[in-house]
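Human:
I keep going back and forth on a fold encoding question. Comparing notes only helps if you start from a blank page. Show me how you would write down a chain together with its backbone fold. Write it directly below this note and I will take it from there.

Assistant:
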Amino acid sequence: MKSLIKNPAAWLPIAMSLTALATVLGTVARFGVVHDPDEGAAAHIFQLLIALQVPLVAYFALRWLPKVPRQALGVLGLQACAVLAAMAPVYYWKL
């Protein structure tokens, strides 16, 4: 899995999820939990970071699952954990 994680299609979705998490936590730390009908820039950045992962993860899965399924599933698991970690504060605070 170490050699597979060096592939940009493997680590970029994880980095995007961590950036989305940092965006949410940074916004909450700066402004608090605000339930505003106008979403704002932070929400749009979060949505773009999460949505743009879909084609990257799909490409990674189509490219690597047939060749090295065990390692690819490990990376896909990491990607799933990262996106769930990014979405958890949004769900918890009902943002």
Notes: The chain has one domain: 4-92. The two ends are 35 Å apart (CA to CA). Residues 4-92 form one domain. The chain has a mean pLDDT of 95.
